Amino acid sequence: MKSFMKSFMKSFMKKINQALYIILMCNVLVSTTTQAWADETLDDCLLRTLKSAEKNITVEQIRERCANINKPVIAKKGLISKRLFAESKTAFDPYVLTPHKMNYMLPISITDTINKSAYAEFSDWSEHLEESEAKFQISLKVPLNYNSMFIEGDGLYVGFTLQSWWQIYSDNISKPFRETNYQPELFYIAPLDWHPAGGNTGFMLGIEHQSNGRSQFLSRSWNRAYLNFLFEKENFALSFKPWFRLPEDDKEFPLSSEGDDNPDIEDYMGHFELGMAYKWRDYEFSFKGRENFATQRGGMELGVTFPLWGKLRGYMQYSNGYGDSLIDYNHNQQRFGLGIALSNVL
């Protein structure tokens, strides 16, 4: 155990140092970009505008054109910016819980092939698993900084996401929670002064742990450091999240509580996640995809939220591939769910 913790902490601190270096370099980049905007003075702008001005232009109109010469041009707020701005108003309100990822409840979630083989070593319990079950996700975050740290508008957060699959329709067993995944994380988010195609960009740096809290043959877990690039334009948002899995020691013997529970998880879960969201009228469409190009394995998830009544929204979810849950990381399946969304993707 001591050797594992020593190795883990060494890897953890190495990734922290790398993350801080990236943050520092991004800060330098933003500062350099902002300085470039200030290279042209007000007098330079007035002279340039006067030389190329139309004949009937007034002095006041020239002054208006150059009034904001030293101010960065900020594109129109998109889905991500609007959400972050709304959250900032209540971020430190003790009576408000801030969503992180999507929060939803699916009373019905149907798979075309339930993963019985993962439980087969223990008893005939797996034979009574139903392909219909309930699924829900709860995800919250807490800000750690009151003021900007490195870049104006940045933030440091602690997040926690819980996913659970509940065998509520199984009659021959005691309707157990088949699988529950816990995902705590620490992440930093900041905007960038880069506006391709008239949109806004930003990035996230984070470290996350994910496990199912089980032991021995049912135990699944891994630790990752990630960089998430964000882009938004009006009602469209995109994220590209590559990650690096923090290494773990091999197990000395199969029943050992120490060591890597799933050394081949990246073969199925991939090395990155691509996410997209689009809002059309009162509907929100989302996509998430993971891939390992070497093994040609991965998974995808499609979702759509729609109005029901009041603030309550319906939610449909379809997934295909590997990694619906940690216990299913190497199990290929299709799944369809229907329920309610407690919060949107964005």
Report on this model:
The protein has 346 residues and is of the alpha+beta class. The protein has one domain: Outer membrane phospholipase (ompla), Chain C (Beta Barrel), CATH 2.40.230. It is built from 5 helices and 13 strands. The protein has helices at 2-37, 42-52, 59-66, 79-88, 265-269, and strands spanning 98-99, 104-111, 132-143, 155-166, 177-192, 200-211, 221-233, 236-245, 272-280, 283-292, 297-309, 312-321, 333-341. The protein has a 12-stranded antiparallel barrel with strand order 2-3-4-5-6-7-8-9-10-11-12-13. A hairpin with a 2-residue loop joins β9 (272-280) and β10 (283-292). α2 (42-52) crosses α3 (59-66). The longest helix is centred in the N-terminal third of the chain and has 36 residues, at 2-37. It is elongated. Residues 1-6 and 15-40 have low confidence and may be disordered.
Q: What is the string of SSEs from the N terminus onward?
A: HHHHEEEEEEEEHEEEEE
| SS-derived structural category | alpha+beta
Name of the top-level CATH class: Mainly Beta
Instruction: Identify the CATH architecture.
Output: Beta Barrel
Q: Please mark out the parts with pLDDT under 50 across 5 or more consecutive residues, or reply none.
A: 1-6, 15-40
- The number of distinct structural domains comes to 1
Total strand segments: 13
Kindly identify the CATH topology.
Outer membrane phospholipase (ompla), Chain C
**Percent of residues in helical segments?**
10-25%
CATH-assigned homologous superfamily: Phospholipase A1
The side-by-side strand order for the widest beta sheet comes to 2-3-4-5-6-7-8-9-10-11-12-13
CA distance, first residue to last residue: 41 Å
